[in-house]
Automatic annotation (TrEMBL):
It comes from Desulfofarcimen acetoxidans (strain ATCC 49208 / DSM 771 / KCTC 5769 / VKM B-1644 / 5575). This is NERD domain-containing protein. It comes from the Bacteria. Pfam families: DUF6661.
């Protein structure tokens, strides 16, 4: 299955169940009525995995987004940028919020059988959480931030940036038993999908 997101082509393994979260009927008709109710880009599951994926393609716009790689909005007001940073957060804050909102939406879809025309797409993901032992190492929820763009500097190589960002996201998601993956096209080695820039 192919899905284009933010200038990146994702080709998902055909054995997976994949949905573009904000295109689902339940999100469109009900959940987005909640102020600030935003979720991740993709949600997918296999026999033993639930994965939430957020895509940020900053390639060519690194200078406007550099502040977002620093934890706790620490550079939001001090880094020169051409974009309005009001109501925006550093990635270590935004991603956990979107994860929490996505999981809340799955719970909401499960709780609304009268809306099954729209809720059934998301209910299957909630049912995975409910019916699998997600507290085990094997069945953990996986959270992926797919961050494209070269933010490297002499002091901070790209690998260190991705690792540090992953650690900060993990701290804010310590309430959830999950694995955190922060990757880009170059570092990506996932069996679930391939990714490439749209040409």
């Amino acid at each position: 299955m192919r899905i284009d997101e933010s200038g990146i082509v994702f080709e998902f393994n055909d054995k997976l169940t994949v949905d573009k979260f904000d295109d689902t009927g339940y999100y469109q008709n009900y959940f987005k009525k909640l102020t600030g109710g935003k979720g991740v880009d993709f949600i997918l599951n296999s026999d033993d995995t639930l994965m939430l994926i957020e895509v940020k393609n900053c390639a060519g716009y690194e200078s406007d987004n550099r502040w977002r790689i620093f934890a706790n909005n620490s550079k939001r007001d001090t880094t020169a940028t051409m974009v309005d940073t009001d109501d925006r957060d550093s990635l270590d804050i935004e991603i956990p919020k979107k994860v929490a909102m996505t999981l809340a939406c799955l719970c909401g879809a499960h709780s609304q059988p009268q809306f099954q025309t729209h809720s059934n797409v998301l209910k299957k993901y909630f049912n995975f959480i409910r019916s699998n032992n997600i507290s085990s190492e094997k069945n953990k929820i996986k959270i992926v931030l797919f961050l494209e763009g070269d933010f490297a500097s002499k002091k901070m190589p790209q690998k260190l940036i991705l690792t540090t960002l992953g650690r900060k996201i993990k701290e804010k998601l310590s309430w959830l038993n999950c694995n955190i993956i922060v990757e880009n096209i170059e570092s990506h080695h996932n069996n679930y999908y391939t990714a490439s820039i749209i040409k």
